[in-house]
Amino acid sequence: MKRVVLAVAARIDDYLPFLRPFLWRQHRQAVALRREQIDTVLPLINRRRAIVRGMRAGSPPDPAVAAPYSYLDSLLDLRVEGRDAVPTDEELVTLCAEMINGGTDTTATAIEWAMARVMDNPSIQARLHGEIMQRVGDARPVDDRDTDGMPYLQAFVKELLRKHPPTYFALSHAAVEPGSKLAGYDVPVDANLDIFLPTISEDPKLWERPTEFDPDRFLAGGETADITGSAGVRMIPFSAGRRICPGVGMGTAHIALMVARMVQAFEWRAHPSQPPLDFEDKVEFTVVMKRPLLAMVTPRKLSF
């Protein structure tokens, strides 16, 4: 992941291309990483391509070896507007790598922030655990069919994404038609627009007590917010519009399930060696805790 960060980090020659011949070392590192990425991912693509051909020839795969359908299948026959050919192998590698990289570190970072909030507020932890016991009990683990029926858990996840979005900036957008305006400004065609998410999710004009972490704000009768931005922009942790993250549903479901299982199985407390919890952040591939979380966990009594 650190090597991916190296490759995608902003570089001065992105803005001053005439400097590119003088900044050869980072470029060479990025090219080497790309070669390694292709060598790693392309064999997996070719293996899936062979399975798809077999299925079309009437030879379904062993369910223990391959899924009947996958994200990659939708790309193999993709027709790009203005082109007759399907995506090249290099394009398939890029699309698959984007899905893998975008869906791993972001979720892991969100879970760390979530457990920090659970440890910082015992009443939140108690309410999450109480809801889990009421809905599921201690005879089996929580599964993804349970979490939709846990309103406090869903409110917790939404408040988590409001206070700790995976990145500071949404994916860049660009004006594609002349005459575009934003907040009274004329936006030229092809101009990049970068949206700084905290200015929205912590705007006192949009939120009551915006600096506080309070899942109750999203319970019935409280504040409302559509995290996709389609019903008004108050928080857009996954961006919005046509460039919204395609993993928004999967990401929120994974966070809810993992938090529920971790609270169901363990009681969480700050490690004695750790100073008071510090919610200062820093930017790596995502927005992470500046001081990594240290925790003490006590197993709960369960029947499974």
TrEMBL record:
Cofactor requirements of the protein: heme
Binding site for heme: C245
Metal-binding found in the keyword field: yes
InterPro entries xrefs: Cyt_P450, Cyt_P450_CS, Cyt_P450_E_grp-I, Cyt_P450_sf
Classification via Pfam families: p450
Single annotated GO MF: monooxygenase activity
Keyword Iron annotated: yes
Keywords for this protein: Heme, Iron, Membrane, Metal-binding, Monooxygenase, Oxidoreductase, Transmembrane, Transmembrane helix
Highest rank taxon of the organism: Eukaryota
Family named by the database record: Belongs to the cytochrome P450 family.
Protein name: Cytochrome P450
Protein source organism: Oryza barthii
Species lineage: Eukaryota, Viridiplantae, Streptophyta, Embryophyta, Tracheophyta
